[in-house]
Amino acid sequence: KIRVVEFKDIKAAVGEHANKEDAVPLEEAYRRLRQAAKDMFTIQKIDQPKATYKVEFQELSQTEEYKDYKHLQSVYMADTVTVIHEENGVDIKAKVIAYKYDPIKKEYLDITIGNFKESFTDVSRKVDLVQEEVSNMPSSILDAAKANATSLINSGFGGHVRFYPDRVLIMDTKDEKSAKKVWQWNLNGLGYSSTGVNGPYGTAITSDGRIVADFITAGTLSGNLVQGGEITGSTLKTSNSANFVNISKQFIRLYESSKVRAFIGYYKNSRGEIQPTFILGGDSDSTGANGAIMVYQFSDVSVKSGGIGITKGLDGNGYLNAASLYFSQTGNAMLDADKMIVLDAQSEMRFKVKDQFRFYRNDNWIASIGTSSGGDTDIMLPSAMIRNSSWENGYIQVKTALGTYYQGIIASDFKVSSKETYKTNIRPITRSVLETVMAWDIKQYNLKTDIPKLYEMRMNRKEGEPVITTDAIPTHYGLVIPKEAEENGVGLYGMLSQLTKGFQEYVTKTDARIEELEPIKPRGNIKHRNKVKRQRRPPRHVKRNS
Predict the structure, then answer these.
(1) Residues 236-240: what's their mean pLDDT?
(2) What is the percent of the chain with per-residue pLDDT over 70, rounded to a whole number?
(3) C-beta neighbour count of 156 within 10 angstroms
(4) Could you tell me which residues are beta bridge partners of residue 339?
(5) Nearest-angstrom CA–CA distance, 472 and 475
(6) How far is CA 405 from CA 74, 148, 167, 208, 480, in A?
(7) Cα–Cα dist 272/267, whole Å
(8) Residue 265 β-bridge partners
């Protein structure tokens, strides 16, 4: 028959068991399941039929003929015995589960081997597994150790005791030379050797206060110092007070007032990734989701990453952070906050980047700061660019987003720095500026940046609508500098100043001509002549003689 075997004590740290203390990583759970299944065959012998065999034999060491021979082999409870009797076709191998002993003759009459007695095989299985499985309750460990000790002591018949004035020997044979299993008790201590009287004694209690043993099982073990290469157990608790450290499997918890104040461990997150975690201010459950500081790392993914943050809640995907710093093995890092990030420095703050500074609002790019291939410093905006170019004597340029053409500026006012403090070599203009102004060749033109708009309007024009010309886009007026010229633009303040000076020259010359025709009566300072309102003279009529 096929039946289902459950191993409820083996839990994988996934799904509903993800945060349980006794849960282990998935691969470790698979390994334990395979080992548990293997133990059912190698230890519990579930593949072997239940049967018992009663064997009567003569132990040669108890005969007169072989009494002086060494006792090279002994049989005890739970030992595996092979019985071969070729004449009867017997070839069996099983454990000793009972025996009949004659205390007068001091010999075994028969032994029973097999696996039929449930009580014995159950106890035997527990003894075999005591090093592999540790119960959660210390009392169960102690009970199992007591049961094992009781079984060993009650089944230890057939030994030989020899008394000396200074020591006592309990041996598996009469002769000290042939004995293998030996207990010795003397003034310096009590010890057991499995290799003869001369030792070594692997289990011992000595007069200097030392205990030598492979395993020590106790309900309570007290001491000032525990030293060792490895300490194995289910749980280690440093104090019985409300303030202590608890170590359980892969988890370390620091308690204060019986509350977890810090947690160190690892578990599988919702994505199935191993996540080593350090939590300050809570445990690896909901208590760590309200203002705890969390340091974490994703260790079993192709690209390692991690971070530090302060928690604000918990959902199906894990802990939520109100503010965090995230960094990746690829070289990326991200500082994130639900509300505000403040960077404060008493002296200076430096930002260093090889490519560009990029600024986003939500997920929308709004600006960048960087350098062009020619070494220009650019502030890039969605539809314009502000450039500081060394080719333009340090002038700030406003250009299109790609930097191909210049872009316009709209402002309520422009002020040019014109204070005497900033100037030198100030002198009057001695040449005629009017001639310069009159030589200006003012043109009308369209900007190349407006041409795509014209093409778009023409493409969208419906049949029958008027033809779209350059009148549909803005017309500009000004000087046009030839392509071969070194200058890219003109100074508006300089042009306006020359235009003003030229106008002043024109007015002065005009006034001089009017003065020649008819003197102008001065009123006040000549500089305020523009405030004198001229009287319109009636037209002159020349009387002709007839």
Answers:
(1) 83
(2) 78
(3) 14
(4) none
(5) 9
(6) 104, 93, 110, 96, 15
(7) 9
(8) 277
Other beta carbons less than 10 A from residue 193's beta carbon: 20
Asked whether the beta carbons of 170 and 160 are under 8 A apart, the reply is yes
Contact by Cβ (8 Å): 284, 19: yes
What beta strand segments (E) does 103-250 contain?
107-114, 160-163, 167-171, 182-186, 189-193, 203-206, 211-212, 235-237, 244-248
Q: Are 269 and 291 in contact (CB under 8 A)?
A: no
- Phi, psi angles (nearest 5°) of residue 2: -105, 130
Is 126:147 a contact under the CB 8 Å cutoff? yes
Contact yes or no for 473/450 (Cβ under 8 A): yes
Going by the DSSP 8-state scheme, the letter that residue 63 receives in this structure is S
Dihedrals phi, psi of 71, to nearest 5 degrees: -85, 90
Question: What's the whole-model pTM score?
Answer: 0.49
82-91, 263-272, 416-425, range with the lowest pLDDT: 82-91
Contact status, residue 32 vs residue 24, Cβ threshold 8 Å = yes
For residue 360, what are the CA distances in angstroms to 328, 330, 334, 356, 514?
A: 21, 22, 13, 13, 67
Task: Supply the pLDDT for residue 520.
Answer: 59
Interatomic CA distance for residues 108 and 285, integer angstroms: 62
What the block records as the tokens of 204 is 């011992």
Q: Is 127 a residue whose pLDDT tops 50?
A: no
Place of tokens 């049949």: 463
Q: Measured at the alpha carbon of residue 527, what is the angle toward residues 523 and 532, in degrees to the nearest 5?
A: 40
Residues 416 and 493: beta-carbon distance below 8 Å: yes
- Half-sphere exposure of 442 toward its Cβ, with a 13 Å CA cutoff? 9
Q: Give the residues across from 326 on adjacent strands.
A: 307, 334
pLDDT band at 370 (very low <50, low <70, confident <90, very high): very high
Q: How many other C-beta atoms are found inside a 10 Å radius of the C-beta of residue 324?
A: 19
How far apart are the C-alpha atoms of 269 and 227, rounded to whole Å? Answer: 36
Does position 137 have pLDDT exceeding 60, yes or no?
no
**Tokens at 108, concatenated:** 């075994």
Distance CA 122, CA 115 (A): 10
* Residues whose CB is less than 8 angstroms from the CB of residue 155 and which lie 6 or more positions away in sequence, other chains included: 76, 77, 78
CA distances from 117 to 97, 121, 376, 427, 495 (A): 8, 6, 93, 126, 117
516 three-class SS: helix
Alpha-carbon distances, residue 359 vs 42, 368, 381 (angstroms): 66, 6, 10
